Amino acid sequence: MFRNFKVVSHVIFGRGCFNQLDDILSKKKESDREFVVFLVDDVFEDKPFRERIPARSRDFLLWVNVDEEPKTSYVDELKQKVVDFSDHLPAAVVGIGGGSTLDLAKAVSLMLTNPGSSADYQGWDLIKNPAVYHVAVPTLSGTGAEVSRTTVLTGPDRKLGINSDHTVFDQVVLDPELISDVPTEQWFYTGMDCYIHCVESLTGHYLNAFSQAYGEKAMELCRDVFLNQTSESNDKLMMASYFGGMSIAYSQVGICHALSYGLSYLLGIHHGIGNSIVFDQLEEFYPDGVREFRQMMEIHGIELPRNVTAGVEEDRLEKMIDVALFLEPLWENALGVSWKQQVSRERLRELYLRM
Ligand code: NAD
Ligand code: ZN
After folding, report:
1. Using an 8 Å Cβ cutoff, are 198 and 253 in contact?
2. Full strand arrangement of the beta sheet holding 123-124
3. What's the whole-number mean pLDDT along residues 80-87?
4. CB of residue 162 inside a 6 A radius of ligand 1
């Protein structure tokens, strides 16, 4: 069966296009009684940017904290705040921030129209009802969360997305000016998420011409940004993130993401930095990609955290391996259908202990 997946229907791109958000939202409000929910990364709470958020008096602005990556419990809490705010549904939910905030916005828009806890929907196509109209405004680029059909959440049992057609944003606002002040390390690690999406997609068994077309362009843009340091790098990184996301939509990520999910679930290490820590150990699987990644680190003076798994108890290490191996399509994409013959728990343990 070929995957028949939904894509974002409206995209606006260009420096300063954030100024058009108010106009876009006004068209969605059918009456003055309607309101918009803004979920905004609290990194902007004391920045001048907050004055540019087009929240009107009836709207509901919620500052969200992403020091920890999104949890199902946090999504449920945010949803409850919206329910308590008004007896009717919002006309729109807008997420303004990095991948974590975009995922929170996706999840809240879904949970406003689907009963129960967000943890009940972690998996594939469990969502029954369409979400509230939802909009992404990325302020950090690399994850591809702005185009994907998932919202990655840490739940009581595992870190797993709510994957569904309804998860996909209705509108994406790509304004490269919004990513211009990201601190270098964060910019690099989230950017490497995109670079690794490209490597894993382009070297994977699931690759097809669709994924390759997007993946090769995203890879070229990543090289421009991180190796050649060409002009208009914010514009390019924003498009690399988008295209990288489109590439994996029709293929899959691979070993780095599988192991990084384990690190993140057990040690709370964020996605971009976790991927970088893992990728640096995967030369045997992705030799060219890892070499180029190290060159990029050197150019930008990035020092990876070391010994992150030192002293981790045996049962937690076992659980990390479980989390990684649970993600079967990622292994199959990387190593083919006979992947189980090529990776043992012992091998994964060695890899984790080197990180
Ligand atoms: P993030 O959203 O977790 O943010 C990282 C840090 O950067 C935070 O401290 C945040 O406050 C800060 N930040 C954001 N924008 C900023 C700006 N303009 N200036 C200064 N600081 C800023 O980082 P991320 O790497 O974009 O996202 C990681 C998350 O995305 C993880 O939770 C991961 O699971 C998720 N993810 C989702 C998908 C998907 O398809 N849905 C794909 C990959 C990753
Ligand atoms: Zn990723």
Report:
1. no
2. 123-124, 159-163, 152-154
3. 97
4. no
- H or E stretch including 212? helix 209-226
> Of ligand 1's atoms, which has the minimum distance to the CA of residue 147?
40
Ligand 1 proximity of 147 Cβ (cutoff 6 Å):
no
Residue 224's φ and ψ, nearest 5 degrees, are -60, -45
Atom of ligand 1 nearest to the CA of 143: 43
Starting at the earlier edge strand, list the strands of the sheet with 92-97. 10-13, 171-174, 134-138, 92-97, 36-41, 60-64
pLDDT (tens digit per residue) in 189-212: 999 999 999 999 999 999 999 999
**Calpha distance 320→185 (Å, rounded):** 25
- Does the pLDDT value for residue 32 go beyond 80? no
Q: Which of 139, 162, 179 is the last residue of a domain?
A: 179
- Structural domain of residue 128, as residue ranges? 10-179
**pLDDT value of position 3:** 87
Looking at all shown ligands, the one closest to residue 140's CA atom is: 1
Any atom of ligand 1 within 6 Å of the Cβ of 186? yes
Number of domains in the chain: 2
Q: Which residues have CB atoms below 5 A from the ion given as ligand 2? A: 193
> Residue 16's CB: how many other CB atoms inside 10 A?
10
Query: Can you tell me the distance from the alpha carbon of 168 to that of 326, in angstroms, rounded to the nearest whole number?
Result: 24
Same domain, 170 and 23: yes
Predicted TM-score (pTM) of this structure: 0.97
Q: Ligand 1 atom 5: the closest Cα is on which residue?
A: 98
